[in-house]
Amino acid sequence: MSDFHQNGIVTDFHNLTRRPVDELEADLVQFAKRRPMSLILPSLYSELEGPALANIVDQIARVPYLGEVVIGLDRADREQFLHAREFFSRLPQHHRILWNDGPRLRGLDDELDAQGLSPQQPGKGRNVWFCAGFVQASARSSVVALHDCDILTYERGMLARLFYPVAHPHFNYEFCKGYYPRIAEGKLNGRVSRLMVTPLLRALKTIHGPLPYLEYLDSYRYALSGEFSMRSEVLDGIRIPADWGLEIGVLSEVHRNYSTKRLCQVDLADAYDHKHQPVSADDASAGLNRMSLDIAKALYRKLATQGVTFSAEGFRTLKATYYRMALDLIEAYDHDAVMNGLSLDRHSEERAVELFAANLLEAGSAFLDNPGERPFIPSWNRVRAAIPDLPERMHAAVEADNRGEV
C-alpha cells in the first residue's frame, strides 16, 4: 500500500517484521542487561472486558526481556480495580496498576490541582502522564515503551520491534515511533490519519511555508499510532496534551528537545487491527469528531510556539485548502484500494472530510477565543520542582493499592 508520506526526516527502519521474533528477543535479553525495559499500558476498565486485552496480556507474559509493566487503569471503582489486579496477576514480570480513580491517587491529584499542576481533563494523555511519573519514581528501567490495549492482532513481536532501536546499546536513538498499515478485513482504515492529518499538514505547508516542524511531522508514516518507545529520561521534560492530541503532542515535544537524528520509526507488523472509533458526527465529545478537534487544537498550539500567527480569516483559508487536498487524496486512496483488492467507501470518506473541515474552523475558534488556556500537562521536572516528594509518595500510594490496602 502507498503511504503518501515518507520524506526521510527521521530514520526509518523497514522490514524488521521479516526477522524472527525469537532472534529479536534473544538480542533484547542481552540489551536489557545494560538498558532495562518497562512497558506502559494505558487502559480503560472496559478494555478488560473487550476482545483484545486478554491476548495482549498472554503475549506480554511470554516476553523474556521485559522488567516492568505499568498499567494505568481509568474509570474503575473498587471492585473493578480488584478484578483488574486478578486479571493482570498472570504477568510474570514485576507489574503495578495505577488505580487512577482510587482515593490515594485522587488525593495526590488534589495536591497537584492546588498548585495548578493537575491535568485539566480526563483522557489517555492524563493516564499516560501519571504512568510516566510512576516509571520515573520506580527507577527500574532506562527504556520505556507504550502501546494501546485494544490491538486485536497483537503479537509479542510488535513489542520487540518497538523496543529494538532505543534499547540497542550501540544505537543513540532517544525515541521510536511504531508504524503499521491500517488494513483489516479487506478495508483501508486509519481515516483520521489519512483524511485529516496528512492533508492538514500539507495545507499548513502551502499556507505557512515548508516549516521544519511541519516537514518533520509529515515524515512519520503514521503519526497517530499509539505505539512508541523512548529512553526513560525523555519522560522528564515533555509536556503533553491530556486529550486525543497525545500522539501529536509527544512527537512535537521530542522534536523540540532532540535532533531528528536521534528519532526514528519502525515497521511493527504487516497487519494491524484495533477497536475502531465511530465518527460520531452529531456528538463533538465522542469518536472521530472529538479526536479531530483535539488533534487540530494540538497542532495549532504547537505551531503558535513556532511563531505562526493565526486569524479567523486564516482558518477559513486553511479549511478551503485542506478540503481540496483531502478530496484529491481520497481519489488516490480509492485507486490504491482497487489495485490492492481492498474496499473503500468514497461516500463515507467524503462525509468524514466534511466533518474534519468543519472541525478545523471549530478548533480555530476555540484557539482564538481562549488565549489563556493551559493546554499541556506540566512536565515531571516542574512537578518535582514544586512538590519534590510527590513522585515518591505516588509510588508509595500505588504500592499500597497493589498490596491490597484498599
Question: What structural class do helix, strand and pairing data support?
Answer: alpha/beta
Helix content: 40-55%
Shape: globular
Assembly category: single chain
**Terminal Cα separation, in Å?**
50 Å
**Strand order, biggest sheet?**
1-10-6-9-5-2-3-4
Strand content: 5-15%
Instruction: Describe the sheet with the most strands.
Output: 8 strands, mixed
Q: Counting H and I runs of at least 4 residues, what is the number of helices?
A: 15
Strand elements, count? 10
Detail the poorly predicted runs: 1-6
User: Cα-atom Rg, whole angstroms?
Assistant: 21 Å
* Mean pLDDT over the full residue set: 90
H/E element sequence: EHEHEHEHHEHEEEHHEHHEHHHHH
Explain what this protein looks like in three dimensions:
The protein is α/β, with parallel strands linked by helices and 406 residues long. Helix content is 49%, strand content 12%. It is built from 15 helices and ten strands. The strands form two sheets. The chain has an eight-stranded mixed β-sheet with strand order 1-10-6-9-5-2-3-4, with helices on both faces. β2, α2 (53-60) and β3 (66-74) form a beta-alpha-beta unit. α1 (21-31) crosses α6 (157-167) and α11 packs across α13. The longest helix is centred in the last third of the chain and has 28 residues, at 312-339. The chain is globular. The relative contact order is 0.15. Mean pLDDT is 90; it is low at 1-6. InterPro entries: Nucleotide-diphossugar_trans. This is Glycosyl transferase. GO terms for molecular function: transferase activity. Keywords: Transferase.
